[in-house]
Amino acid sequence: MNLTEQFLKTREKTETICSPLQTEDYVVQPIVDVSPPKWHLAHTTWFFEQFVLVNFDQSYKVFHPDFAFLFNSYYNNLGERTLRHERGFMTRPSVSVIYEYRKYVTSAIQQLLDSKPDIEVIQLVEIGINHEQQHQELLAYDIKYILGTQPTFPAIGDYFGLKEESHEQKWLSFSEGLYEIGHQGNTFCFDNERPSHKVFIQDFQMSNKLVTKGEFLEFMEDGGYKNFNLWHDEGWHYIQNNGINSPLHWHHKNGDWYEYQFNGLDKINLKLPVSHISMYEAYAYANWKGMRLPTEFEWEVASQQIEWGQLWEWTNSAHLPYPGFTQAKGAIGEYNGKFMLNQMILRGASVATTHDHLRNTYRNFFPASSRWAFSGIRLVKNQN
Amino acid sequence: MNLTEQFLKTREKTETICSPLQTEDYVVQPIVDVSPPKWHLAHTTWFFEQFVLVNFDQSYKVFHPDFAFLFNSYYNNLGERTLRHERGFMTRPSVSVIYEYRKYVTSAIQQLLDSKPDIEVIQLVEIGINHEQQHQELLAYDIKYILGTQPTFPAIGDYFGLKEESHEQKWLSFSEGLYEIGHQGNTFCFDNERPSHKVFIQDFQMSNKLVTKGEFLEFMEDGGYKNFNLWHDEGWHYIQNNGINSPLHWHHKNGDWYEYQFNGLDKINLKLPVSHISMYEAYAYANWKGMRLPTEFEWEVASQQIEWGQLWEWTNSAHLPYPGFTQAKGAIGEYNGKFMLNQMILRGASVATTHDHLRNTYRNFFPASSRWAFSGIRLVKNQN
Amino acid sequence: MNLTEQFLKTREKTETICSPLQTEDYVVQPIVDVSPPKWHLAHTTWFFEQFVLVNFDQSYKVFHPDFAFLFNSYYNNLGERTLRHERGFMTRPSVSVIYEYRKYVTSAIQQLLDSKPDIEVIQLVEIGINHEQQHQELLAYDIKYILGTQPTFPAIGDYFGLKEESHEQKWLSFSEGLYEIGHQGNTFCFDNERPSHKVFIQDFQMSNKLVTKGEFLEFMEDGGYKNFNLWHDEGWHYIQNNGINSPLHWHHKNGDWYEYQFNGLDKINLKLPVSHISMYEAYAYANWKGMRLPTEFEWEVASQQIEWGQLWEWTNSAHLPYPGFTQAKGAIGEYNGKFMLNQMILRGASVATTHDHLRNTYRNFFPASSRWAFSGIRLVKNQN
Amino acid sequence: MNLTEQFLKTREKTETICSPLQTEDYVVQPIVDVSPPKWHLAHTTWFFEQFVLVNFDQSYKVFHPDFAFLFNSYYNNLGERTLRHERGFMTRPSVSVIYEYRKYVTSAIQQLLDSKPDIEVIQLVEIGINHEQQHQELLAYDIKYILGTQPTFPAIGDYFGLKEESHEQKWLSFSEGLYEIGHQGNTFCFDNERPSHKVFIQDFQMSNKLVTKGEFLEFMEDGGYKNFNLWHDEGWHYIQNNGINSPLHWHHKNGDWYEYQFNGLDKINLKLPVSHISMYEAYAYANWKGMRLPTEFEWEVASQQIEWGQLWEWTNSAHLPYPGFTQAKGAIGEYNGKFMLNQMILRGASVATTHDHLRNTYRNFFPASSRWAFSGIRLVKNQN
């Protein structure tokens, strides 16, 4: 697939993800982590307009002068922007205008690509595609959160389903030694995956399965949410202050546990991997089992021998720069570097992750409190 | 006009007010005072369903069992309800479903009225009409706030325009004495307008005009927002903490003052009455002029001799029960009584007030900090 | 007693109130309503220094240049001041330096009074005495709050004891008519007690007793704190958000109710008047009894025939200016006028009130949520 | 020095640190990070009482039954405790009672040590000594914060002075390779310093000096606090929201920078190392220089060749468990493990650190926003 095809496919997929939504669903922001779907649609478009068209297409006329302000996310170098927590108050431009905006920019980029642009354009379009793919995944989280907040729990179809973790439990062993970590070669990756470098890793054993909802329910029933010894001090306060006693999207009704999925509210399936847990909960669960979460380096080493891709897997590694990491100059340099503090790494991928992002060097990250993402738990034991 | 006609007219008018909106505009809640227009549409309908149809129409089937929960406002006696500050997260039911709900209930009430119901039904429908008319006015405030929050300041037409206060300034004198205050007779009024009772009032003079934007600008230019001596202690802290230095909807651009109106952002017209000010600002302005705001009793006495109805006029009276006030039993008794604390009275009416509410005994009330209503200032002087 | 004697007695009494305290008790501010005792000691002194000595004693040298900043309360006209909620962080100047400051200023005022000063000085000293007497009462509230917050509930002696309300319950009747309200004559009163003016009052009956702890306990046991129909909307939210289910200083232990008093934690005495309740609670209690709180005007009219002075009695009147009220010029004009919004009137006096303040025209006021004051409940019925 | 001597010396030193304080200074808590000095005095004593005497001295009678509740810090396993942010409201027990408590427990421990206790007691006393030494350092930070908050900037003497960083700037080179990190052998260390393990480190160069106030001032004057490109996203929001534009304890007066030190407010000495900066500021400074902060592993490797001990040095490492880390059982296991999230490591020591803590494996940690500690900046460059 050439770049133009890849670009068009990406643009189309974003719109497909949104296709089951009603106009009203595009607008709201029930928590600050969630952005309105219309904002995602516009912001990913703005990215191409601002980084590519404005700079490299002299004949380009911006679709609307206000949009640079309205749909910038956090790029300080590109000027003022709507406050993040006010995205859900923006009713104008309407959803249909935003779809026109998409069409307009998609077509302009397509023409630019047809004109044999130089390498800088191609690299920026590549980043733009990857950026939009990241937002596709966020759209999945946000749509689920928005619909899961409705007291009516609307069903919109059978999206992003997980498969049961029914294979036999095994503990895979890995030996201590120096390993090469990070992305190598010239193919695309995000800035935080480089440079590739050596890391010394001690012996460890990793599970070949994700923790299931059934297993997590045992933790709950054993008082896991009430035993402070299992928790980080910060996590303990967080669950107390927010009254958390189950994963997000779980609801206790008439003595049974239900879970909101895209196809509505249903009884939980105990064999599916547990999802929508914070790193605090993942850590407490591992503690309760007498085990621990992997480091991101252990995960990367083990990734060849394990099945992954259902859910992002919380690690016990902080999002920190690799040795020799340097930020790019200008706005594009704001990509990941400024988030290298108080964010925890998740490795792998989820059912909402685009295939292009299935790299075992990919470093996803969220604050430890995040629960709206498609996250799961994989356990590690120290070698006996 | 008979009750059925009045009912149908009211229902229709609510929808007319919303007709310039795009679907997205119906959904959001930028501040807690504002309710999403779709919520108003549904809540006023729910009121008829819950108080009239459920109780008095045995053949009635509720439109949807969840709606009692979704669209209750603050009637504790009628069970659980959506938290007020979460109204703006409700995307479902969609706007079009809510319009169906309106149709369904309107038609059921119409049939019930056709069936010669007893007096209790008629009284409740009357309250329901007045309740919906109150929400029509709130809709005007809320729509203005929602659109006025958009960075693009959309123009939707020439609604709720004010006329210039261009008549000659006069000071009307009123003599001390015992006056009868409150609603008399059997026609409809809200519970807080009764009982009618005697109040002794001292000599005073009242302006025959509202304060204009031009006059208010003088206050601003004289440093009115910076002189704590003019303000209540609470008001002073409020404007400091919220960075307030002009009425709501005013914007300072390139050295000029603009105001958002339904037809867009325009330079202020100095001859129009100033609006969108809190009671704090009204009080500080009066102080600056060496005058004061009227009491609600003075206003009622003077109302016969003044022109009113452009803007609600802040008084210096607190919303307290009239002597002998008693709450009705049950849910309907929650109407005004529970708001008789820390709310200030506004008298008169605004251009967004329905004609049926033009009563000089009408006691509107808001917290002193409210600025999104169509409120204005009328001055009073003590007699020399 | 001449003015000098009155002045010296007042200064001494403030120090007597503080005499049971340990140094540590003088320093802290557990809630924003409470000021550290050392702050009261200094602020009342600063008032004399700033309003009298600095202006009228040319030979006077300020004790310390920083104190004007440190011990100003809310007089904006007198410049910057310590933020109210940071008073409890001020360890310096020490308690002993503040006592020196008191001595220094007391002596300077005494000399000034001996020098036959003109009437303005005499009036300001009179205000200063009354101001310090108000702070004596606040000291009683604050000391009780500070000590009542200690997990060890220290006993410091038998201060400010109440007597049982054991006289027979009677309902005193008052007839409708025009009454003269407010302070008359030339003796001292605060600015908000004037001008005297006529008010028309309807028939009412007032209890000759305060509500007792035993009676209030019946309200509690009947679910008074759980029945929203009894509460203002604002009050209901307040008790929910703050988890309030009894008066302040009450503690439930092993099935019994205890109350912190200055002599320690003891079982409640059911015959004493209930205290430390907010206006919300007073109102809900009255509602539960099918009665109401008096207006401040009813209270003033009835005061001649009732016993009062144990506890400040919540009224259902807001703190608003009397007809013809005007603020004094300058800093002294900031006294009460700027608090004439969202404050409720209490009438009478408490056991912590100085005898000089026993005026039936005295208008005390607090926000409806205040519970740390010595407040009580007296009921009123409309005439049958 | 034997254990008893070490114990007694430690107990004495804590009291020496507090000796310049007035009683009032012992009580307050101006920010949640700061604990009142009297709380430190009591809490370190409670630690010996609770972990040693209560468990291992059968004849011991607790000094006061309430103290276990009052002076527990965060040991959930040992029951309820005063909320951290309410420590500054505790006036009782008084400072003098707390000194009696210290005497009582010191003497009881001394007797226990004289009785040839078994190894568990000795190990716990050793932890207790180290625990108290940690609090000695916190006392230095807290006392400085409390006094530095006083508008009068009291001078209490020449404590904890720094020396100028006047030696010649050099860049020390270190070669990539596998290094052994963490505490080895049987001498005392905290739980987070173990187990010792191998880490692979890349080439780097480290400065032989700390960044000085003069150098930091250049950053400030170059607009460092206004250039978002230099900051973490979280750090940028933090300084915006808190109005930070200089290190803590710096004050701009009449065009000059002053700093509060224990001997009062003085002009800054440009040659001293900059202190009282958050990790955000340390990071931004390093960014501005085109360099970076060391990792904790680099620091440990380089520590043999550099001078350190003036200020704790922020690293770019998160506080995470070493491979193979396990928590001890019971309350003592709560020591460091539960803080292994969203805390950044500082290495080295400060002038307020006891000599017993001068270990190059010591892992101090604070949230990135902490500014009240004695923290500084050392730069690292990647090898060219």
TrEMBL record, chains A, B, C, D:
Biological pathway: Amino-acid biosynthesis; ergothioneine biosynthesis
Q: Where is the DinB-like domain?
A: 6-137
Q: Which UniProt keywords apply?
A: Iron, Oxidoreductase
- InterPro entries assigned to the protein according to its UniProt record, in alphabetical order: CTDL_fold, DinB-like, EgtB, Sulfatase_Mod_Factor_Kinase, SUMF_dom, SUMF_sf
- Which Gene3D superfamilies does the record match to this protein? paralog of FGE (formylglycine-generating enzyme)
Domain of life where this protein originates: Bacteria
According to the entry, every stretch annotated as the Sulfatase-modifying factor enzyme-like domain falls at 170-319
A Gene Ontology biological process noted in the UniProt record is: ergothioneine biosynthetic process
Database matches in NCBIfam families = egtB_TIGR03440
- Name recorded for this polypeptide: Ergothioneine biosynthesis protein EgtB
Q: From what organism does this protein derive?
A: Flagellimonas marinaquae
